[in-house]
Structure formats: C-alpha cells, structure tokens
Design brief:
Blueprint (H helix, E strand, L loop, with lengths): L3 H13 L16 E2 L12 H16 L3 H4 L5 H9 L10 E3 L3 H19 L5 E5 L4 H14 L2 E5 L4 H4 L4 E7 L11 H10 L3 E5 L18 E4 L14 E4 L43 H10 L10 H22 L6 E2 L11 E5 L3 H10 L2 E2 L1 E3 L3 E5 L7 H15 L2
Parallel strand pairs: 1-11, 3-4, 3-5, 5-6, 6-7
Antiparallel strand pairs: 2-8, 7-8, 9-10, 10-13, 12-13
C-alpha cells in the first residue's frame, strides 16, 4: 500500500497544475467532498442573483411583457443553442423543455413513426437492457402505442440483434450504474446500416465528455441538465432532432407551443418548422432561466468539453489508484471499465454492504451515492472537483471500511 502522505502530496501537485482549478471558485461549495454531481450538480455562485432578477424584475415588474421584452418565449431554442456545442451539435437542433422522460417519449415515438413511413414492416424497438428504469418504462409504452414489440438488448449485442423489422433503438451513452461508456459512433452506424433510427440518452455524458451528435449522424437525442450541466434540481431536459429529420419529426405530444401559429388558436394542428416542433406547452421559465445562468460557466476562459474530459479521466484514474492503495484487498471491486474509451465520468465500486457504507461516508463528509444492491457511485465533475478531493474520498472510504 502507498503511504497517504505520498498520494496527498501528488494530489497537491496535480491541483497546482490543473488548468480548470480556478473554475471551482464559480461554485457554492463547502468542506464536504462532493462526488455526486452525476446525480445533482453543484450550484454556480452567480445563479441566485440571476434568478432573483427573473423573479423580482422580469416577473415582478415587467410581468406579461417579459415574454417578449425578457426573451421568455424564445428561451427554449436560445438555451438549446447554448447546450448544442456541448453535445457536438450545430445551432437550431436542440430545444429545451419538459423532463428527460417526456423527451424520451417524444423522440422514440417520432423515431418509430419515421421508420414506419420508410417501411411498414418496421415493428420492433430495441432498448438498452441495462437502461435507467424510466427509459424502459417509456419504451414499453411507446411500443404499445406504435404497435411494436419491445426487445431489451445489451448494448454490445445491438449490432447482432438488428434486423429488417427494427424501427428504433434507444441507448444510454453512459451506463448509470457502472459508468461504462458505450460506443456511440459504432452503434449509431450499425443502427443506420439496418435502416433504423438511433435515439441516445445523454444524461450521464453531456457536460462530461465529447458526444459528437452531428459528427456521428445521431438521429435523435435527449438529456437532463441537472447533472454535469449544473442546471439545478428538476431543471428542464433537452431534445436534439437532427436538422434533416426535422421536417419529418412527428411528435406524439403536439402542443400549442410547437404550433406553426401558436397564437392563432386554430383547432387544427400545424407543426412549426425546425427544432421548435419539440416544444409542447408553456415553458417552466424559472427553472429554464436558472439553467441559462448556470451555462455561463462554460464561457469561462479555458473551459471546454475537451479540457473537462482530459481532467475527468485524470481524476478517475487517480481515484482508482488511491482506492487500490488505501482500501484492503477484496473489500471493493471496481465495475467501471479501466480503458479510457469505455469510461464515463464516474467510478462504481461493488461493495457487499454498499448502502450502509455510503451512509457512513456521507456522515464523514464524502458524498457519493448508492445503487441497489451493492454499488457505490462516485461522480467526478471536473469543473469543481479537485485531486485533493479524490485522495480524501479514497482515504475516508478505506477508514470507513475498516470500521
């Protein structure tokens, strides 16, 4: 085992050389080692003042005028364009609003409808067998609604499971339990080769690593904004619709906000052009504008997805080294891939009494989370997590496991 002082000294040196270290000051943090940004990102320090302005001035003084004068009406597309470069998309393809679950439903049903326009025999949906539960629930409902059979498949098995009846495939870019990063380019290409449509859930990758939606020809994608994008609890999700598919995007939730003439109050529905088709009802302005303010952090000098990814891999590498050095053999097992090309921005450790261990860790000032039945999850948000945090977390974990 390495001496704690040796790794602590290395952490200090790594923090001193960290090009993103100064960004940490943009967040509201305390003495707690916070490694749960893969569930809820930390609060950017300037957001409360921005939200106060929205409440007191825009709502309190301007009231209804703010839909135009404060840009409320166009916020879903405006903020979508700010998220777009973080997921490798050009402007005009991302719209923000509703929850991830609602956007999964829109995207998956729309994908099946396009596939069935291409060929009526397209009557099967493949879904990631290890998916976050809500994606599975939505996929099952979408299958019933569109007359499709639903087949859960491990992501690695998708290429061999595809066929001429496959309409759409719903996959997670990063597995929420293990942190495994799936091969988005190769899987998207395989889906397209089979004549089907690819829908990606980016909840655990956007803001943590490069995605490349445009580069890899992804059809539709969804993601939340309260994890690595730090938008706040329940902040609205987003929907990506590739530009050339937008005229064919047939939402199962047509609402007045996505109408070509939203204030025409017509009884017949005519969809708007572009990504606006992904809107449904009145946007949640308070959460939406808090998210917009949170995204300002990405405008800081030196902050980029590439820089974040480089630090993310360094943080997770260092954490695994510290765990290996400090934790007694056999007490935990990493289920997160060691290979950089297969790892997201979290480390998952299998531990027999994970629930109780995480409870004690939190009591000792190290906050991660637990997934049944036996997984400790630690999320690494490079914008505010440092190497000293990583070393301390591993050291406290070792002490906790020792009793």
């Amino acid at each position: 085992m390495s001496e704690p002082t040796s790794l602590a000294g290395e952490a200090e040196q790594l923090d001193a050389a960290d090009g993103l270290a100064a960004v940490r000051e943009r967040f509201v943090l305390d003495d707690v080692t916070y490694l749960d940004g893969n569930s809820l990102g930390a609060l950017p320090a300037h957001v409360p003042a921005r939200v106060e302005d929205v409440v007191r001035r825009q709502w309190g003084e301007l009231r209804i005028r703010s839909w135009e004068e404060s840009g409320w009406w166009t916020a879903p597309e405006r903020i979508g364009d700010r998220i777009a470069p973080l997921v490798g998309a050009a402007a005009g393809q991302v719209v923000v609003g509703d929850s991830t679950s609602v956007n999964v439903f829109k995207a998956l049903v729309a994908a099946v409808r396009m596939a069935q326009e291409d060929g009526p025999r397209r009557d099967e949906i493949l879904v990631d067998a290890t998916t976050f539960p809500t994606d599975g629930y939505i996929a099952e409902s979408a299958a019933r609604m569109t007359g499709c059979a639903l087949r859960p498949v491990a992501p690695a098995d998708v290429p061999s499971a595809l066929g001429d009846r496959t309409a759409a495939v719903l996959l997670n870019h990063v597995d929420y339990r293990t942190g495994r990063l799936h091969d988005l380019p190769a899987l998207t290409a395989a889906v397209h080769a089979a004549g089907a449509y690819a829908v990606w859930d980016l909840c655990h990758s956007a803001g943590a690593l490069p995605v490349g939606l445009d580069e890899h020809g992804v059809d539709l994608a969804v993601g939340c904004t309260y994890k690595y994008l730090n938008g706040g609890p329940g902040s609205p999700a987003y929907l990506y619709v590739r530009r050339d598919l937008q005229p064919r995007f047939d939402s199962p939730l047509p609402g007045w906000n996505s109408h070509a003439e939203p204030f025409g109050m017509r009884s017949d529905y005519a969809p708007a052009s572009g990504a606006v088709r992904g809107r449904v009802g009145t946007p949640d302005i308070l959460s939406l504008l808090a998210l917009e303010a949170a995204l300002d952090v990405w405008d800081e000098e030196g902050v980029s997805v590439a820089a974040v990814r480089e630090k993310s891999l360094a943080l997770t590498d260092f954490f695994l080294r510290c765990v290996d050095a400090y934790v007694p053999d056999g007490r935990v097992e990493s289920v997160t891939p060691a290979a950089h090309g297969e790892r997201g921005s979290q480390v998952a450790l299998r531990c027999d009494d994970a629930g109780e261990v995480m409870k004690r860790l939190i009591e000792r000032g190290v906050v991660g989370d637990y997934r049944a039945p036996d997984v400790l999850r630690f999320g690494f948000t490079p914008l505010y997590v440092g190497f000293a945090d990583v070393e301390r977390a591993a050291r406290v974990l070792a002490r906790t496991l020792a009793g």
